[in-house]
Fold this sequence. Notes:
Layout: H1 3-8, H2 17-38, H3 47-74, H4 79-91, H5 101-111, H6 125-140, H7 143-169, H8 173-177, H9 185-190, H10 193-212, H11 216-250
Helix pairs in contact: 2-7, 2-11, 3-4, 3-5, 3-6, 3-7, 3-11, 4-10, 6-7, 6-11, 7-10, 7-11
Amino acid sequence: MSNKTESIIKPETQMTLEQFWQLANDTRLETEYLTDQKLQYLQSAPLDVLQQICLQYRYFVRDYPNNLSILVSKIPYGNFKSLMAEILAEELGSGRFQRTHLNLWDNFLTSIGIEPQVLEDSLHPDNFKLLAELKQLTLDKPVGYVIGLCGMGGECLCQVYLTAMYKYITLNPYMQSNKETIDWEFWNIHIGEEDIRHRLMVKNAINEIIKAEPSNLQDLAAGYQKAKSNWDEFWGNNYKLAKSKSLVAAS
């Protein structure tokens, strides 16, 4: 991250709400650019690499509703609490287990040839540590930090990676050849105008919280920075995993 961004969010620096949203916008633009570069390899990756990368993402989909429920319990009553609760309900299928986003992702995984019996026990050790840390921070940190970490990190930064992932896996020859038999329902929900709507609603609801309690702003920025760091590391781990498998296949 640039020195300019880091200087904005140092604990001793007082930040305005406008500066925070400038930071958030700059961070998203930077993430979009770097993510597009990072994930280009997916368009030509062999099937076993695609499967492993998609399998790693499964564990974030699994853990996200649990972390989101902790966040909802911490947020004061208001629009942001209601919005996060609505997103949580959507993640959990709005009362229908078959519509949970984890179940939809698993349907996608099995449609690209992943055996159901490996779904639960294929998490890379480095990603296990990251997800465990994310859960602990969500439990321990103050509400402003958790909003930045889980509310914005999980709902906004995650979408940047998901969009790039979709862009490049749909160009992959295997996906092109098998697109009629692949279950795309998870992607149909997550890619498109819904993301833009969610981001605007999140921004408006966070503004309400910060205006009511400006002291949350520094924690919000710190949590958002940590979310970016975690996402960068998560996908860095996945890239190393993909590279190691490609090297094995070539040997």
